[in-house]
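FW: tagging you since you asked about this chain on Friday. Here's the raw sequence from the shared folder, copied in full. Didn't touch anything.
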Amino acid sequence: MTVWNPWHGCTKISPGCSNCYVYRRDAKYDKDASSVYKTSSFDLPVRKNRKGEYKLQPDDGIVYTCFTSDYFHPAADKWRMDAWRFIKERSDLYFFFITKRPERFWVSLPSDWGDGYQNVHICCTCENQKMADKRLPVFLELPIKHRAIIHEPMLEAINIRPYLERYKGRIENVTCGGESGSQARLCDYEWVLSTREQCIEYNVPFRFRQTGAKFRKGNRTYRIKRKYQMSQAARAGIDYK
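HL: got it, structure written out here
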């Protein structure tokens, strides 16, 4: 697995913001997360060693992209064409990124995109029903080869049945997860199970990625340390396909 953060930062913090962890982490190191800047690893995918070989190789695994910002962040418009160029050049690598801005997909899109690059997997995050109904109608109409939905942080029960039904075959998987950090909001196991049930109904792969720090199951609410959040989710054994 490789993490590639071509730029860093988030424009604002809000109750429905899935990048709030960026603010908490940067505040810890006295950094301003509202400042969006090009990172030192901007050209990581195309860097070469002294032998002229790419430093990143397919065996290094999926390239998780822009996980401390948003690939379609407006402040990064001036850099995105170069990022797309790196992705095209490295067609042997598989790039995965999450966005909450599907409406900005067309900005700085390469002219040869067509119906999508085979080596790009785009995931739209929908933390509540309002955001699902706002983002998914846009996201699921975009020309993308590989796409997924993620509810993380999952802040309430979310009905995505209309989208799973209408866009059969376009959604490769759905993931749920709670929020980490000392100020984490609640994730309820019943919400996760509801999404799983919807995915099974439409035969879409489902994954419960992490419990989050504040997790409710039945009548009990648990405080779970970060190091156990993924393993506790795995122990539930509810992943589908």
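FW: The mean pLDDT is 90.
HL: agreed, and The chain has six helices and twelve strands.
FW: great, closing this out.
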